Amino acid sequence: MTDARETAASEATPAPVPLLDPREGIPPVTASAEALAEVVAAFAAGTGPVAVDAERASGYRYGQRAYLVQLRRAGAGTALVDPIACGGDLTSLGDAIAGEEWVLHAASQDLPCLYEIGLRPTRLFDTELAGRLAGFPRVGLGPMVESVLGFALEKGHSAVDWSTRPLPEPWLRYAALDVELLVDLRDALEEELRSQGKLEWALEEFAALAAAPPPAPRVDPWRRTSGMHKVRRRRQLGAVRELWNARDAIARERDVSPGRVLTDAAIVAAALAMPLNAHALAALPGFGGRVNRRQMDGWQAAVDRARALPERELPQTGASPAGPPPPRSWADRDPAAAARLSAARAAVSALAEELNMPQENLIAPDSVRRVCWEPPARASAQAVAERLAERGARRWQIGLVSELITEALGAVAPAAED
Hints:
The structure is a single chain. Helix 2 packs parallel to helix 3 (91-97) and helix 5 (127-134) runs parallel beside helix 8 (182-196). Helix 4 (107-116) links the parallel strand 6 and strand 7 (123-126). It is built from 21 helices and eight strands. Helices cover 53% and strands 9% of the residues. By secondary structure, the protein is α/β, with parallel strands linked by helices. This is HRDC domain-containing protein. GO terms for molecular function: 3'-5' exonuclease activity; nucleic acid binding; nucleotide binding.
């Protein structure tokens, strides 16, 4: 028997309206310098914020370049721009809208690929981050549009190969709909944040995102190979590094995802086995089937290079620590630090729950760990605030948590002295 309360709730909340087509239809793909110039002129003449989105070919192509950029602005409509066909440089478009507010969803995911093609905002509004700060339980674009605006977006093409040409019409429809209601969502979330007293916090977050430099290349990216925890010996680590670098060079040359050249699991299997020849290598998981003899010889050469490395050139078993050790080891290594971290985490967690936002948005967990591992010589709110600021914490975050963390440090100080 259906609960009467469930029936009442379902009747009170209308079903979302499926959003099937863009208001002005699917625009043609902008794929020439002449067409791009028309888009630039239209968006320069438009008014209000600019909705921006990008589609990549993750899992298909090398790197994270944008293969389609979607934009929408009042007075300009929607544009679907092929940055590859336009020469890989959309600086003219970026310049035309640089001073306007850009509206993105999960901006940190799209900004790096937008930077590569000359698109960089000076002001932005991130609807995903706004949803987090406002306390929404699900902050994907589809759930946000549904819960805030009452429309259902079709999300079936998010993981397709966007380097495909020509792009199928259903994919283009999906891409256009991704920016169709983005400004409407922005406006509704602005009002929600204002009503909760969090709008200024959000604006600080958005300003920090817009001002952040492009991400620096990772140090020793090969250490992120999935399954690395199984590799214990330095020479085996050397084999992972040699195989990873060989795979990366091939993937870059072919413009394919590295995982399509050789899987991480295969790299780890070869490093653990350290086969003596290509025949032994071919018997390992991931090296059979379509791997031809020439490729097999190349992978074996990488293993042989690792075997021949002198000891001084072998990688260390752990990446150089860039901060405190894992918290699970604190109780043994520094019980006082473990107590400080436990108290600080509890205080931050309680405040995050009170404010109805994720803890990691209230303050970066790594910043809390660093302050607790090496607290200021004199635990004061000012000293803690300075430490947090050094780690990139925003003013609103510092204002909310510096006193709490200071109290946590002070609460366990006597125990630390004992």
